[in-house]
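Narrative of accomplishments. A recurring question from our advisory board has been how the design workflow behaves on a single, concrete structure rather than in aggregate. To address it, we present the structure tokens for one chain from the evaluation set, followed by the sequence designed for it. No filtering or post-editing was applied between the two.
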């Protein structure tokens, strides 16, 4: 046992010795408090800056106050049975329809957000992270526009997500159990929907530079999350789990993170556009993804598709313009 842990235990026992608390309860509080001190709180869904740890004395004082408060509520009769905890009340669905789908932060468009109706939430800075299909955070309760999110750090963090307009939202952190002293954020993070039905009243609706014929194909830079704005189709190409294998997902209904329309491997030939090989385990894809040419200029990608390929079957024409989302 370290010196810090020894002092923590002494402070804990000093605080609760005068209270009628069972040894099992003290042991449990020791574990909870040590775990809280071991890791500082993460930002609400990854947005807040980390704060410093609580001091030992303050932690012991907070714990003693909590124990005393609990005893005041339950009374001194230790012979009485404890009432079973009531499940927290919540609005349903956990994530409303107007928030379900794929979003991005603006004006900084380097984070992709995915919201699923069952409460799963992800925030991905790269295409590789998006392709991992791993949801580390989950909404556990909702009251109007206040969401309690249980994060991978073990914290319960409350955030407010306001729907500003259809396809536009503003997010701000309110409180977190990992740092109760941390107050509400004064600035909001702006989000805009990218799929389904991209929000064209913001960044996505602004004019984009065109890629004129003659630019050399830059297949090296295909990795990213790309959006075909006109159809709301999302194409993510990256290396999940920081591996060597280049993979892709294609989706046009907003659930590309959790249930993509198509997924598979990307093969980069020595010359020409990438070749897409769908996963055999998921059955035949709904359409054939193929490009006859691919040109990238900054954060804009222009592709051409053969007859019968995915984007052409969705009314996108022979040439498509994509915007990099992440």
């Amino acid at each position: 046992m370290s010196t810090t842990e020894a002092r923590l235990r002494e402070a804990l026992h000093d605080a609760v010795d005068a209270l009628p608390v069972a040894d099992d309860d003290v042991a449990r509080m020791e574990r909870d408090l040590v775990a809280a001190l071991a890791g500082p709180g993460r930002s609400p869904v990854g947005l807040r800056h980390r704060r410093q740890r609580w001091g030992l004395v303050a932690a012991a004082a907070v714990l003693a106050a909590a124990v005393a408060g609990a005893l005041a509520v339950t009374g001194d009769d230790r012979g009485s049975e404890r009432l079973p905890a009531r499940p927290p009340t919540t609005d349903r669905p956990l994530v409303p329809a107007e928030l379900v789908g794929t979003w991005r932060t603006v004006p900084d468009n380097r984070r992709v957000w995915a919201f699923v109706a069952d409460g799963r939430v992800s925030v991905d800075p790269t295409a590789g992270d998006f392709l991992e299909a791993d949801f580390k955070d989950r909404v556990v309760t909702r009251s109007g526009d206040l969401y309690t999110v249980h994060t991978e750090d073990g914290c319960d963090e409350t955030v407010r997500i306001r729907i500003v307009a259809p396809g536009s939202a503003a997010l701000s952190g309110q409180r977190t159990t990992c740092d109760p002293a941390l107050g509400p954020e004064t600035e909001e993070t702006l989000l805009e929907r990218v799929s389904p039905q991209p929000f064209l009243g913001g960044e996505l609706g602004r004019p984009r530079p065109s890629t004129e014929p003659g630019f050399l194909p830059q297949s090296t830079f295909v990795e990213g999350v790309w959006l075909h704005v006109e159809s709301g189709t999302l194409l993510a190409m990256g290396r999940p789990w920081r591996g060597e294998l280049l993979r892709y997902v294609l989706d046009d209904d907003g659930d590309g993170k959790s249930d993509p329309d198509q997924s598979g491997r990307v093969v980069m030939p020595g010359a020409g556009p990438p070749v897409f090989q769908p996963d055999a385990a998921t059955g035949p894809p709904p359409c054939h993804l193929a490009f006859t040419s691919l040109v990238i200029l900054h954060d804009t990608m222009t592709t051409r598709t053969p007859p019968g390929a995915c984007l052409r079957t969705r009314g996108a024409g022979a040439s498509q313009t994509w915007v990099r989302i992440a």
